[in-house]
Amino acid sequence: MSVLTDTDERHLRRAIALAEAARATGDGPFGSLLVSADGQVLAEEVNTERTDDDITAHPELKLARWAARRLDPDEAGRATMYTSCQPCGMCATAIDHSGLGRVVYALGAEQLAALRPVAAATPVAYAGPALLDEARAPVERA
Fold this sequence. Notes:
α2 (59-70) runs parallel beside α4 (89-98). The chain has a four-stranded mixed β-sheet with strand order 2-1-3-4, sandwiched between helices. With 142 residues, the chain is α+β, with helices and mostly antiparallel strands. β1 (31-35) and β2 (41-46) form a beta hairpin. It has six helices and four strands; from the N terminus they run αββααβαβαα.
């Protein structure tokens, strides 16, 4: 882990406060904010999975979408997302696609799992790859 600055710690504390706000409304306790290279808070989000009835309404995903729509690649690459918990796989992929340059998080995934054990989900059965020649045609023409 890299050394955090006082500014990093201040923004992480804000992410934790946003997580508390989400929890107070009955949503999962997760909050995030996006900060420009010059320290300006660009956007803030909280988890709204329950209130929006949307399993993808994670604050990190919402901010990654916001950044992809509103920031040019250079701005995105210099921005930092501060988040109360390490982004899940879905959010991490969106962050990668958004071009954001840095993510700083408070709780790690293992720490979260220790605090909030989740019931084992029924595993999803995946089948594939299949129809390779047909499937690759649209990709090759992209």
